[in-house]
Amino acid sequence: MLTDLTIAQAAEGLRKKEFSAVELTKAHTDAIDALNGRVNAYITVTSDKALEAAKKADSTLAAGEAPALTGIPLGIKDLFCTNGVRTTAASKIIGNFVPPYESTVTAKLLENGAIFLGKTNLDEFAMGSGNLTSAFGGVENPWHRKDDASVLVPGGSSGGSAAAVAARMAMGATGTDTGGSIRQPAAYCGIVGLKPTYGRCSRWGTIAFASSLDQAGPMTRSVEDASIMLSAMAGADPKDSTCANVAVPDYRAACGRSLKGLRVGIPAEYRAPGMSEEILAVWQKGIDMLREAGCEIVDVSLPHTKYGLATYYIIAPAECSSNLARYDGVRFGERAEGATSLDDLYEKTRHNGFGEEVRRRILMGTYVLSAGYYDAYYLKAQKVRTLIQRDFTQAFQKVDVLLTPTAPTAAFARDEKPEDPVQMYLNDIFTVPASMAGQPAMSVPVELDDKGLPLGLQLIGKHFDEETIIAVGSALEKAAGFTALPDLRAGVSA
């Protein structure tokens, strides 16, 4: 089936004229028609636009010299502004926003010939770990436990993108990662998710959650596909002062590179209390596979890791409080009706427009930024963040890459969501430290657990050294031989 191809395979098939871009795109729009009513991976589907773009792609391919992604159908997380296509951030407050401009990342993908199938679902304003907070309803993970019909979460916030790729409703998709929002859903859905170095991809035109942490990245079926997408997405942008003017290498060339003599660090602090034996076993399996590939395994310490989650949940809500202040019904956002004063307008608009999790984080952020608590919380958190960054700097003096679990568990069921929001935040325990330090990191699926659910391992690299994590990820992917697919019949996993 065309929907089972990787981006690399599809690009080759298009150039060999084995099928057309229209046929490839139609296969994916048909999959969306068949599955999206249940999976809810897309908020907005743009099938007609996609098929028109596919016709143009076929003309470009026929003329030769087509860019790398010509004719490849992708899903776009509904946080990237897309010219003329509704962009909601999965929130009621901007549920009818149609941007008159294109984000830098999506513009780069379009320049590379990509076709956009629609806008994928997410946690509201990217705030969540289970894709349960969207104003347009939660996303269903295409995977199911053996002999269990429970609906599982796809992870968050980029759960719609992860589910779309896993369910063969897109060949790849964009995600954003603030504290693990690409890597954790990738692990839950059995796909590859790559968070580049902070500043590698432009944030211009991407709706902000936490500006010092947000970073766009690809979510794909293979490491090679992630390298192809990242090459298209990355690069300097004069519109974004946080986007680094650093040359973009040929990431795809790193796939299959020899790992002989590469030093892989194993951080002691990632052996967290209460971790399942299965996660530990998969981690050990990954260590053994990389050792077999010629890597040297080195024990390292990241002593401030234990403070990562607490630090993140001070800094991220503080930045969210600042970024979301603009949605007040006057300048931005759907204005509430019936207000009797300006203060009443603000209160009604923000209460009606924001969901519970977003309101919680705005309140937390406003509190830690307030005059009496700024020094006690926010300033102290920034100092700890510096120590976390220093841990990584010191570790990378000894090793080339780090290997850790991506998430402490496999995907959990919707009805197993903890009542305590802090317990939900613990899903990000392994991904947050790399985000705090701005390191590139990638999740690669390795095997299924005893209930038939995918488990992933995380690779963390040096700043602007995505090439090494792609090389190691490619070797890990090859050694693991993960080929399992979700079966969308409820309660059954292939």
Question: What secondary-structure arrangement, pairings included, does this model have?
Answer:
Elements: H1 7-15, H2 21-39, E1 42-45, H3 47-63, E2 73-77, H4 104-111, E3 115-120, H5 159-166, E4 172-177, H6 183-189, E5 192-195, E6 215-220, H7 223-233, E7 263-267, H8 277-292, E8 296-300, H9 308-323, H10 342-353, H11 356-369, H12 374-395, E9 401-405, H13 421-425, H14 432-437, E10 441-448, E11 454-461, H15 466-480
Parallel strand pairs: 2-3, 2-4, 7-8, 7-9
Antiparallel strand pairs: 1-3, 4-6, 5-6, 5-10, 9-11, 10-11
Summarize the entry for a quick read.
The chain is α/β, with parallel strands linked by helices and 494 residues long. The chain has a domain at 2-262: Amidase signature (AS) enzymes (Alpha-Beta Complex).
Structure description:
Helix content is 37%, strand content 13%. By secondary structure, it is of the alpha/beta class. Helix 8 links the parallel strand 7 (263-267) and strand 8. The protein is globular. The model has no long low-confidence stretch (mean pLDDT 95).
Give keywords.
alpha/beta, 494 residues, Amidase signature (AS) enzymes, single chain, 11-stranded mixed beta sheet
Task: Give the integer mean of the pLDDT values.
Answer: 95
Radius of gyration: 21 Å
Could you say what the CATH topology of the domain at 2-262 is called?
A: Amidase signature (AS) enzymes
Low-confidence stretches: none
- Overall outline: globular
The first-level CATH class name of the domain at 2-262: Alpha Beta
Strand content: 5-15%
CATH second-level architecture of the domain at 2-262: Alpha-Beta Complex
Total helix count? Answer: 15
What profile does the largest beta sheet have? Answer: 11 strands, mixed
Quaternary status: single chain
Structural class: alpha/beta
Helix/strand order: HHEHEHEHEHEEHEHEHHHHEHHEEH
Give the strand order of the largest sheet, numbering strands 1, 2, ... along the chain.
Answer: 1-3-2-4-6-5-10-11-9-7-8
Number of strands: 11
Question: How helix-rich are the residues, as a percent range?
Answer: 25-40%
